[in-house]
Amino acid sequence: MRDEQFIRGAIPMTKSEVRAVSLSKLEIQKDSVIYDVGAGTGSVTVEAAMAAECGHVYAFEQKEEGCELIRANCKAFGVHNVTVIPGKAPDSMRDCPAPDLVFVGGSGGSLESILDLVQRKNPSVRMVINVIALETLARVMAYFQERDMEPEVVCVQVSRGEMKGRYHLMQGQNPVYILTAEGKSGRSAEGKSGRMAECRVHIPRIMIAAPESGCGKTMITAGLLTCFQRRGLRCSSFKCGPDYIDPMFHRYVLGIGGCNLDSFFLPEDEVRCLFERRVAESELAVIEGVMGYYDGVAGNTLQASAYDISRITRTPVILVLDGKSSSLSLAAQVRGFLTYQKDSRIVGVILNRTSPGSIQRLRTKFEELGVVCLGTVPVCEEGRLESRHLGLTIPAEQDRLRERLEQLADQLEQSLDVDRILALARSAEDLEKAGKQEASVDAHVRPVRRMGLARDEAFCFYYQENLEFLEREGWELVEFSPIHDSHLPEHLDGLLLGGGYPEVYARQLSENRTMLEDIRNAASSGVRILAECGGFLYLHRTLEGLDGKIYEMAGIIEADGFRTERLSRFGYISLGAVNGHEFHYWDSTDPGAAMTAQKPASDRSWNCMHRTETMLAGFPHLYYLSAPEWIREFLRGTGKERT
Fold first, then answer.
1. pLDDT at 399 over 60
2. Which of 233, 424, 239, 237 shows the shortest CA–CA distance to 318?
């Protein structure tokens, strides 16, 4: 590539002829992890990233002007597999993944320390070093001789023609010595790790988990997402387990739909495929844990726990500890979590509801355990999230949530080491690129069908993956509000009534007579209806509201919804073909008997679901991707071909 193609500044740049030889000496493979140390304007970074199309390049540059030039050149050339890391090497390199290849264009006087670090990370690393000064050349040669290594040395001396008056004269450039050396372990003929190179994907990622519910992981996750977005990072967010509400807070911050990662709903390989597909256009993935870190299916297994998802996605974990009433016991707690599973992946801790002074007392204790203490979050009003019987209230009901999240982000920037958190995320190991992908919808050949999607304060519990599945199946999702709209959207072939809080808004739902009449007419005309939990109660004859009063509902199901004092049916269930989840304080005089819900790792089961040719309704929240053909079978035959 010509030097003129790069955006230039006052920062030195490796010239094209030297760059060509240096890159050839690196022997870049398509999945290589490459360090560019002293990256300058990013000319080597850009060309290396293009060659390592399935790999990743880390560009280390201590000058901010240089970092900006690298970012600008990466953007200009459309390169996305690059992470720019400011700061002085080798300190800035410590939390990054082990490199396969290292190019050193500038070392800031720390060359020996840089070479020592990369060889500790990967004894087989291949190193290419550019040297101009003879004194530096002598130092590098002495370094390798002390370690019984014999580098290849090439001197590149380039002359370029320039007009001098009437004549073209050759002007000599500084000679550059290019030294190439390889770690003692060497590489096999097949490539790294004795295998043929396969495409790998580097996904900077971090999980925010906790020893138990109530430690503040949702608040800290939302606050950190706000911090990351304010820094201009393209983020994607995930929630472990079947929770609906926490992803709403992620969506509120990011403006995009979140995603649930659940190894009860899906096999491990499909969980990883889902994860990799959702982060394809992101610079950072943030996963929020579920309950306590090791709490899984049936309360006595690791399946579907936050730990299980960190293992499947190979994600570093930050543990949020509630330090309000503890001190040294927090270190003992962390020790237990580190040793319960040898591959705990816990790399850092955040002390919530804790004064900054606690850091000084506890930092060394955590460091002795091999984890980083990333700071404290004091008790603050902006960190308080309101709750009700199903957990946190939804974002739209939280007072001044946007303003409070901005204030919380300000607090986290002051009290947490956000740069170190990002470095830990970037240190996540590479994942082999998943091969299984969802088929896309061809709008020209697939039937386009319209499904009314109930979405408002009363109906808001939806798995984003379910909605995307329906869209891939050719359904146009048309949102409407059973509270605020007078009528259903026109020309519907299906209705999706999700879970939520119909009991809280029972009066408003009951008073919207025209909407209830439209729902009845849709059911009688053969519109396919999928209704879950709150949506199921909406179809009942009557519903007891949160205020204790009885309200008329749609009357499609001849039963009455009533309040109970506790969760009567709670947790993961298998309904034969499809997996799901129940969580409700309200019950029905007729929950249905079309299917049997079986608790995993338990003898407990119960009847559930109303099913007709055109309606599937019940308390279970179904996860469509666990049985896509089963869902297709129910929806099949609706709608017409539209052009």
1. no
2. 424
Q: What is the pTM of this model?
A: 0.69
pLDDT at 245: 78
Catalytic-role residue among 67, 259, 373, 533: 533
Beta-strand pair 431-432/200-201: antiparallel
Q: How far apart are CA 420 and CA 414, in angstroms?
A: 13
DSSP secondary structure string for all residues of 169-206: EEEEPPPEEEEEEE-TT--BTTBGGGS----EE---EE
Query: Does the annotation count 533 as an active-site position?
Result: yes
**Helices assigned H by DSSP within 27-83:** 43-51, 64-76
CA-atom Rg of the chain in angstroms:
29
What is the pLDDT at residue 502? 96
365 vs 168, 347, 361, 368, 371, CA distance in Å? 69, 14, 8, 5, 9
Q: Are strands 605-608 and 540-544 parallel, antiparallel or unpaired?
A: unpaired
Cis peptide preceding 502, ω within 30 of 0:
no
DSSP 396: G
Average pLDDT over residues 242-263: 81
d(CA 58, CA 97): 9
Q: Looking at 533-578, which runs of residues are DSSP E strands?
A: 540-544, 550-552, 557-563, 571-574
pLDDT at residue 585 tops 70: yes
Q: What is the pLDDT of residue 196?
A: 36
Mean pLDDT, range 73-96, rounded to an integer = 86
Q: Is the pLDDT of residue 557 over 90?
A: yes
